[in-house]
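Internal QA ticket QA-208
Title: Verify multi-chain structure generation after dependency bump
Assignee: T.L.

Test input:
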Amino acid sequence: MKAWIATVVLLAPATALAGGAESFSYLEPGDLTPGSGNGAVDYTVYAPGMRYPMEAGPSFPNSQVWGHGGGSGPGGGQCDLENYSYPWRDNYCETRSWDMPLCPSGVGHQGQDIRAPTCEPGVHWHVASEAGTVTNVGSFSVYITAADGTRFDYLHGSGNAVSSGQSVEKGQRINKTDNEFGGTPTTYHLHYNIKQDVAGVGFIFVSPYMSLVESYEELLGIGGDVLGDASVDACSAVVGYAHDENEPEAQLAVQVYFDGGPSSGATGVEIVADEYREALCDLLGSCEHGFTLELPRSLRDGSDHEISLFHGGSEDSAAVEIETASSFNCAPPPIPDGEIRLIGGPEVVAAWGLSPFWDASPVDAALLASLPEGEFFPDEPVLVMAEGDDTVWWMDPGSKRRVPSEEVAAAWGQSFDDVEVWPAHVLADVPQGPAMRAEVFLLQAPDGSLYAVDEQPCDPSGCELGGGGTGGGPDGGTGGGDDDGGDSTPTEAEETDAALPGQDQGDDGCGCRSGSGSGGFALSAFGLIFGLRRRRLRGVG
Amino acid sequence: MRSPRKSIILACLGAATGCAAPEDASTPTAARSATPDALRSPEPPRRGTVLGGERVRRVAQWPVDDAIDESVVAMMPPTERGAIDELTLPALVSSRPEFASSTKVMPGPRWYATWSQHDGLTVTLNASGEARVHPHVSSFEGNERVRGTDAFVTQNETIWSVTWVENGIAYDLGLECKSPTMPQCQSGAYAMDLAEDLVFVGPREGTR
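Actual output:
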């Protein structure tokens, strides 16, 4: 049983008596009470910068059902001191029959149960985790929705101090810890949910555990004595360093925030300051504390932006600001040649593993309208190889497109580990389009619409042999340069010259025809495979 | 806030390597360069982890104004009718008179919520126009079909929720019973029926 330990002397001896603990510690996320189900090993802080939902500590997130006084617990009463002591224990995904897509078993407890400083009802205040709107006061529930749309749920409380529709400030009192449950009392605790719009799933419950850890450390004032700096270098990178004088050899995880901080809803990026810098050796007595962060393309928009550097929050301390803002203003990069393809929404972004933050360049409507537009970007990636051939292809509807390397696949959020093996004759007859681009370049319209910049499909006029199908076209052009209204049956010459998988036709790779006389059949099979493929289920990695 | 020690370091970095501490450690970092050469890396820049997930806008696909259910709009409290016009997303409201007449509309920057209560039932609706993309979460099939699309239906502490994407927007309907023993909360069927009964009420094209 591994516990993260943070040495913190609690500042409130009176309340510490209830907990019987002097230092805060927590078990890792997903480490549920033995026998209580499969936890989600999820270190994501879904609500960075939030306020811990109890007004005061100490406080004890752990299981109600598997704790003392619970139906599956070891006996004793709910006020047993062990329930009111560290370490914390995750109970998101604890055994329940409720469907939960982010739980390893597909079912489980959606939130985290939190005990108050003492085992007393109607005494300890819950407070708003973020400023926002009270979007529900139910029979035993209160929801607060923050400006960014994240919803924080408070269940089983009493003495509501808010009403539906009311605006609240971060830290404002909501209600008190109790056992309200629609006439059937539960134990004295706060059931706390965080609900977010997660691409690929929808508006669902996410693990609150690490957000609670971070916010609790903030509440207790845990932090280090950290030095650091960050600035933009040549509009390509944010360079800097971070160093903790109390742990001089530690390589710190630092948080680079753009245009605000964790409490303002700004976007932050975490990176480990572990790069060697000769200059730091003498100054700090330790050398490996530098970092070089790619400058997100989405911030290269000709506007002023600020950078602030923070440390902590996710593992061993609360987020504290190291360095106040420095600013930058970078022009947008040139848009590569090609056509633009509309990306259907966050679900497509998630299915591909794309990143508008890193890869999307903001463009205005006029510029966007001037660019040639192709077909919709595919909803999900399909990488395949033929039996007996290790060439990897991206199946862009209507054509196959060579994936030059695993690095190129990774740039598009894909892995060669996920490649499907198709019958060789099916793949051989799929027209070949241009190779997958090595660089992901996205465009973001003012209304938020996203486009991928892609190769233009192969030009039928470039085919050496007249009458051949071109493939690769957005319409799925499978055959028949039909000047004469001809059918799609390949000519003998086409069959002879057909490109087979693995036969490179140059980097552009445009293949003009199908590879055998059974093209019609093969393409039907291709379509069938596409049509019958079940949407892949991929969960928490 | 910058400590004297930090000022020393920054000044030294600005002057490259081999720097001794300045004589006056409290001197501000006037000579600090924007990007000290000493911090530049020969390595290509890395991408870090976007905290809390990357935010991606959902682009609304607006129903035509003719699709607005005027009878339901008329049932809503007058103050709430006005609130519809402030929304930035297609608004759905229950067509059941008992809920339409008690609907409260709460707008957010890229979301809205509605709330209504009747006869021991609390019905909430959250609509989101901004998704979070997490690298460890890809896609899931719904476990039910609602409003002609995949939906995810589940229960949390006896509160039912129905989640789906429509009009390009993520919607979530919640149903809470005053007592968990009420028949409407014994399964997800009633919550799904409530979702089916939602209708488009605006905002109109000229106001959005």
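Spot checks passed. The mean pLDDT of chain A is 83.
Status: verified.
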